Amino acid sequence: MTSATHSTLFPQAPGPSQFPAPPADADAVLDGLDPEQRAVATALHGPVCVLAGAGTGKTRAITHRIAYGVRAGILQPSSVLAVTFTNRAAGEMRGRLRQLGAGGVQARTFHSAALRQLQYFWPKAVGGELPRLLERKVQLVAEAGARCRVRLDRNELRDVTSEIEWAKVTQTVPADYPAAVAKALRDAPRDPAEIGQIYAMYEQLKRDRGAIDFEDVLLLTVGILQDRHDIADRIRGQYQHFVVDEYQDVSPLQQRLLDLWLGDRDNLCVVGDASQTIYSFTGATPDHLLNFRTRHPNATVVKLVRDYRSTPQVVHLANGLLAQARGRAAEHRLELVSQRAPGPDPVYAEYGDEPAEAEGTARRIRDLIAAGVPAGDIAVLYRINAQSEVYEQALADAGVPYQLRGAERFFERAEVREAGVALRGAARAGGNDSLLDDAEDLPAQVRAVLSTKGWTSEPPAGSGAVRDRWESLAALVRLAEDFARARPGATLGDLVAELDERAAAQHAPTVQGVTLASLHSAKGLEWDAVFLVGLTEGMMPITYAKTDEQVEEERRLLYVGVTRARLHLSLSWALARAPGGRASRRPSRFLSGLRPGSTAPGARPPSAGGGGVEHARGTAAGTRRGRRGPVRCRVCGATLTDAGEMKLMRCEDCPSDMDEALYERLREWRADQAGRLGQPPYCVFTDKTLMAIAETVPATDGELARISGVGARKLDRFGADVLAICAGQEPGEGDGED
């Protein structure tokens, strides 16, 4: 696992006793650069935009650019400010510059650079000491919620805190938050008006206590530079040249700060790749990168497309994935050209169920390790952290060491530990626990216990900590269902013992092992072998990606995953969740036309062209598909946004004309079907769908199909029974199978 490009052109960083001597002179700094990288390194004047594809050596290009300017006497080290997004990337940049004989250049994150300036100029601009910097917002957000009489659990606190951070980096004040959420089509974790109130109270509490947060560091620096021209002039006198890495990830607030640092000058070099924009939920936007030529018509644009990381086979797949992309970022995609020797073709693997997929992945990993691939050079990447448990178990069973990146091990997560305590207590109480009174089998008992910890039959809307917690609890529910299916008659105590055994197996200490990581946390890293798992519709793209823009970001996320692989690449999916389950899943739409036996929905040639240097303005314009019209309440006509209300086709508060007796008959029928299928009732129909059926009382297939939640598959499977019940008849004796 490394962030350094793996090639003879990009040697591994030396150990402490192996630091090479800096290049002899400025020309020697350019040795070993390819033509496009050399063009970046020698473009030292005016605005420069470097469009750098994955694995093309962008960090090498920009560090050699700075070093060449310093060694040639064109740039003074103290006059250069290079900014990026992580302390790790900034540290790597400083280390490379020292090796190139360009020590003294400031390489920092946006926040680090702004905080340094704020600390220095605060006494002059405002007076006194800089307010205390909050290390964590959560405690103050909790207090703000309490003062607004809104109780937030730990996961809701994380989500509301993230919303406040998003609002601040997009320069949205509390009063404007609800409108900004609606305009951005953002799925807020709570009522936007409620979050806006908490946000306002949080800001008030900070002011009362003389504290600032990390977003305030940027906001206050912007404010001082706008109001105090003398201070702005001093900073501009200090820094003459700016370099911004990962420019596709800048927020509107960071761009505003950069504009103020620059003033009316244009000595700016930005580096980015719109096809790797995967953090828009934090406020990042590729618009500044895509609009660079519009803002700077005379800019030099250099495209880096020589991929030194991945084999031609991996690069071909990455290019094919983006060839089907739509939207503005896709119009500027880069066609990568591998510089490595050919390697094995990517492997596409279809499995019957998720455990089989995990076991098959573990076997292939064990074979790679036996063939000489170090475990540390192998990664398993998935969409959400809750998917890790089955791979932790499979690797532990196969005796393969592993390490998790960016998340706790499954059984170490707080919600899983809490669930384990609750299940253990219920198992000890046995029949004396009133929670279990109506639970007829082991899965029902688990669902009843976990419902007290946040599990519900329907997932919460959107992403965030609340959704992550639900996914972990849902994984335990699925595990209980699988366990009961494999061991009929098993008790809650048996399940608790099984969970303890799994936890013990997965908690073996490891030093060097296979990396398990989400796709988001894999950004910036690379491995010899990458296994992309769980690539089914609903997971990739994730089910809550609703708009065209959100779906395209999911495609880019998969592209990032593909381009992490140097040599071996595997893409897999499972047709069913559990052994013996119905094979109803479909491979991700993003693999259409790429995996064997599939056809592409229609790919377009790349418009961004090959590598090289451009001096002319581009005029390509993106296209956007139209969205469906709003869903309106059938009672009052109001626009519906809540998923449950959209299923009912009416506001929750509007009068209901539901046939209560029919609803109860449908619930009884659903419970019977769920028991036959060995699935939870909501897998047949959700409560909201049953309510909608009981309100509309459909008489034909067409009327039933128009109800949200009744798709073609469920219509074919359950339609005859539902229509019979609606007509006052007894449902058929079908077994519920296709």
Low-confidence parts, pLDDT < 50 over ≥5 residues? 1-19, 616-630, 734-738
Secondary structure: helix percent:
40-55%
Supply the helix-strand structural class: alpha/beta
Name the strands of the widest sheet in spatial order: 3-2-6-7-1-8-17
> What is the count of DSSP helices, taking H or I runs of 4+ residues?
28
Classify the beta-strand content into a percent band.
5-15%
Give the end-to-end Cα distance, rounded to a whole number of Å. Answer: 46 Å
Mean pLDDT: 83
Taken from the alpha-carbon principal axes, the silhouette is globular
**Radius of gyration, taken over Cα atoms and rounded to an integer in Å:** 28 Å
**Count of beta strands:** 19
Q: Examine the secondary-structure arrangement and name the CATH architecture of the largest domain.
A: 3-Layer(aba) Sandwich
Quote the CATH topology of the largest domain: Rossmann fold
Largest sheet entry? 7 strands, mixed
CATH top-level class of the largest domain: Alpha Beta
What name goes with the CATH superfamily of the largest domain? P-loop containing nucleotide triphosphate hydrolases
Enzyme class: isomerase
Cofactor: Mg(2+)
Binding site for ATP: 52-59
Protein name: ATP-dependent DNA helicase UvrD2
Helix and strand arrangement:
Elements: H1 26-29, H2 35-42, E1 48-52, H3 58-71, E2 80-84, H4 87-99, E3 106-109, H5 110-125, E4 132-133, H6 138-147, H7 154-169, H8 177-183, H9 192-209, E5 211-212, H10 214-227, H11 229-238, E6 241-244, H12 252-262, E7 268-272, H13 287-290, H14 292-295, E8 300-304, E9 306-307, H15 312-323, H16 328-331, E10 337-338, E11 347-353, H17 354-370, E12 378-382, H18 388-397, E13 402-405, H19 414-429, H20 442-450, H21 465-486, H22 492-506, E14 514-518, E15 527-532, H23 548-562, E16 565-576, E17 612-614, E18 631-632, E19 639-640, H24 643-648, H25 660-677, H26 687-696, H27 701-705, H28 712-726
Parallel strand pairs: 1-7, 1-8, 2-3, 2-6, 4-5, 6-7, 9-10, 11-16, 12-14, 12-15, 13-14, 15-16
Antiparallel strand pairs: 8-17, 18-19
Helix pairs in contact: 2-3, 5-10, 6-9, 8-9, 10-11, 10-12, 15-23, 17-18, 19-22, 20-21, 25-26
